[in-house]
Amino acid sequence: MHQPSSPPMAALKPWNGLRNAGKLSLHKLTTSYLLAEFKCTVYDCGFHSETLETMKEHFLIHQKPSNQHSITRFSPWLECWYCKNVATSSDNLLEHVQMMHKHCGYQCDQCCYRSRDPNSVVVHQRKYHNELFQNAKILCVPGRQKPYTPMDDDAIRIEMKTNVKGLHCSHCVIRKFIDLDEFLTHISGHNKTYTDCHVCTQPVPTHTMEEHIKLHNIYLFQCVYCDYGTTATAKIMEHVADEHPERMLFYHTRVSRNNFPPFVRGIQRIAPNRYVVCSTQPNEVIHIN
């Protein structure tokens, strides 16, 4: 007997990889679902709301017995639908969404991903929806956009002091470096077989210092929001898009030549017709040609 085929499903949080249990029938992946501030990502549920209390009531449907602790059982409704955060209660989850993602004004049209920076949405779509990338859209969530301001500049500079480790020569302690190549050339110029690592103080063969400091997450490209580093531009942009969707797509490059800025934005080529301006009226969208 012919078995009916399963309806096509969309992965709602593809950035979670193997943990991604949230899937939704494509016919339920509507504009109103994607634009809603609150949404349920339990398998094929599709419930969404703009009202906090309504969402709290809905979560009770999926709630397991109270004698099972929420973080030790499978509770997909406690996972943020916009990022990798997992809350300990529905109240904490809803507070997280309201606080962390209130300025995430650009929404992927293929899943729940949302970011403050449209460039992050493009990076996300290229990574997770590559087969649909050419026709993918960025939904502009009404009233959520927040322009980049000098205050963002100041915040990034402050975070960099904690997150981006400096480069120091252990042979002449007063020397500090921004440029990775300049640092490596400098320590080689001392003609010492070993150089103490300025992070862990262990003696390291000087010619292997570049590889050693990678153990401390020191790379050419650094995240300005955490201590992640990599040698590839594509990887650093994917990291920021995945791990920090509520932030602008900025990263640090360990280069000081030609007045290179301390952090740069990962600008993507975005055609105007990729944006879809969404009205506050349900299901009303305006495509930009």
UniProtKB/TrEMBL annotation:
Q: Which domain of life is it from?
A: Eukaryota
Q: Which ranges carry the C2H2-type domain?
A: 38-62, 78-101, 106-129, 167-190, 195-216, 221-244
Bilayer-crossing residues are none
**What InterPro entries does the entry give?**
Znf_C2H2_type
State the coiled-coil residue ranges: none
Write the protein's name: C2H2-type domain-containing protein
The lineage is: Eukaryota, Metazoa, Ecdysozoa, Arthropoda, Hexapoda
